[in-house]
Amino acid sequence: FLDVYDGLRRGSYAAVLRSLGLAARSLPEPRPRLLLQQLCAQVQGGARPPLAQLLAVRSSFSGSLLALNRLQVDHVRALSQVLFLTPHLPAFFLRRRLRSHVLEIQHLDRALLHLGLGQLSEEELRAACYLRGLNSTHLGRAECRAWLEQWLGLSCELQGT
Predict the structure, then answer these.
(1) Quick check: 68 and 97 in contact, CB under 8 A?
(2) Domain count of the chain?
(3) Structural domain of 46
(4) Does residue 76 lie in a domain region?
(5) Is the pLDDT of residue 113 over 80?
(6) DSSP per-residue string spanning 21-38
(7) Is a pLDDT exceeding 70 seen at residue 79?
(8) 130: left (phi over 0), alpha (psi -120 to 50) or beta
(9) Domain for residue 62, yes or no?
(10) What is the pLDDT of residues 17-46, one digit of tens each?
(11) Are 76 and 98 in contact, with CB atoms under 8 Å apart?
């Protein structure tokens, strides 16, 4: 079942990246706009960008056109589908629910960082990866741990906004 659910999730990724690429074009400053467009192109090409590259665009998501409360409704719907939240709600509720869900994951991330990944059983490690978007059913424990360490490195650098 996890593979089926992962397929549904992956079906939403293209819409998220397309919406993000369109929104990036509207950024007023050329450097963040170019960095984000390059990042979208890389991910669409199947690459997994390094943490430093992701952190380089984080300021574009606070107080700009890419802030959650300013995203286009189609973009918010696609993000909701990625997180298995119902996309069939009015925009206000979608944004509120998405913000709540993302903040919950961020709180869990901070708790995991504090606890340490070594404390997790293999099942808990796989569940943590899956909640964050990685289908871990075909990965080993070490691969899951490495991916989750990278995720935590990014998540714990971000602010709630």
Answers:
(1) no
(2) 1
(3) 1-156
(4) yes
(5) yes
(6) HHHHHT-SSHHHHHHHHH
(7) yes
(8) alpha
(9) yes
(10) 999 988 888 888 888 889 999 999 999 888
(11) yes
